[in-house]
Amino acid sequence: MPELPEVETVRRSLEPLLVGRTISKVWRSPLALRREKPDTRLLAKTLQGARVERVERAGKYLLMRTTQGGALIHLGMSGQLTVEKSHTEIRPHTHVRLELSRGAELRYVDPRRFGLFRPYLPDAVPNEWSALGLDPLARSFTAAVLREQLLRTSRAIKLALLDQELIAGLGNIYVSEALFLASVHPALPAKTVTAAQAARLRDAIQDVLEQGIRNRGTSLSDYVDATGESGNNQDFLKVYGRDGKPCVTCGEPVRMVVMGARSTFFCARCQKRRG
To answer: Of the residues 2, 5, 38, 136, which is catalytic?
Structure first.
């Protein structure tokens, strides 16, 4: 699933291709996304004839704002949001096409249909947007704030960090990487985190996210940016997907366990669990 660095990379690559352009035509497939029936009339009302003003991100969500409202977008597990020439072949599983000025189209493709492309009216705030926790790249994301959030739950710290209502945008890849960088065991109860651990973890979270953005995201399967280009952050991962391979720090084999139905990668020597 695309996480914060992938979504931010899509946003940055989308903005120069969309802002200032007018949407002349809207097409939406009849298939539901994230179990929502398509509202084609509202989609046309908020997008057709509108000019794109900006593209924002909160957590893993994108918000394309237009002069008439806009669209809330989530890439789900396999979604892709690309700007292509109007004459290029339409790929299978294309669910939204927005015809733009100057002979281009914004296309939303999602084979598994876990994503979202929902229209919204001007000045409306989508419920998903307002329910999100603090963005980990915000200035207000301090070690003290992070620790305060973690002390609220007895869950394993790995699972707490995946909770989008606590911290928005983190996913399985970058949480595993940040915990390794901070030398924190993924099963540590969140409510026991020390101030020193929280400080290391806050820095590690921002470091791995910023690295992911610099490398234009992690492409392990479907992810591409708005121009169709893959990222290369997968070449820089230290523990994720490296089960059985030597730890880059100590040489101990990286371990994989399942936590919350998700694969979790860590080094038992570098990330000792207290108690």
So the answer is: 2
| 158-196 pLDDT, tens digit each | 999 999 999 999 999 999 999 999 999 999 999 999 999
Which among 104, 93, 81, 100 is positioned nearest to 2, based on CA atoms? Answer: 81
Catalytic residue list contains 3: yes
| pLDDT tier for residue 275 given thresholds of 50, 70 and 90 | very low
262 noted as active-site residue: yes
Catalytic (active site) residue 158: no
- Give the contacts of 66 (CB within 8 A, at least 6 positions apart): 23, 46, 47, 50, 51, 52, 53
CA distance 76 to 79: 6
Instruction: Name the nearest CA neighbour of 268 among 254, 251, 248, 249.
Output: 254
Task: Give this prediction's pTM.
Answer: 0.95
Give residue 128's pLDDT. 84
Cα angle 220, 105, 65; round to 5:
85
CATH number of 143-266: 1.10.8.50
- Domain range annotation of the chain: 4-130, 143-266
Active-site pick, 11, 28, 60, 113: 60
d(CA 39, CA 69): 14
The CATH superfamily assigned to 4-130 is: MutM-like, N-terminal (3.20.190.10)
Catalytic residue chosen out of the listed positions 191, 214, 262, 269: 262
In the structure encoding, which two tokens stand for residue 164, read together? 């989008």
The pLDDT of residue 129 is above 50: yes
Instruction: State the Cα–Cα distance between residues 203 and 229, nearest whole angstrom.
Output: 29
